[in-house]
Amino acid sequence: MASLQLQAAAAVLALVAGAGAAHSFVFHEATVDAIQLGFSNDTLTSTALVRFYLDQIGRLNPLLHAVIEVNPDALRHAKHADADRRSSGNATGSLHGVPVLLKDNIATRDALNMTASSFALLGSVVRRDTGVVARLRAPAPWCSARPACLSGPASTKSTTGGAPAAARRGTRTC
Where is this region: Disordered (predicted)? Predict the structure, then answer.
């Protein structure tokens, strides 16, 4: 257990050190205000932000298992947000161009699955975004990934017929 924690800490420190050296924008734990400032002063683009987070997911997810699905259209959405910002000169809202994570029990009308942690719903297509997603999309953000976070009704579902892995371990995943 301690070895796993040390590996996770080493991975995070390596990523933070690498991110700071490679970019003038400080990505680690950036706030929405800092991200929007980076957009406005041209030290950050939505494409660079999405690439950074996709890289983080790719590097850390094999160890942490925190994200169950990434939107295959995330980079396309980021490029579109960058083009919108260049053409209009400003963002349409504080989340414009900022990727967000949504639990997999929140329906989105895009390439992401809405499974509520159940294989029975894999591949199902919803007619429209849920209300929360529709309100999030109003200022033009998009769902970039699905975190592996179990709580509420979804925490009682299992893909193997037994208790969810987090429940079997006696831990929460978020």
Answer: 152-174
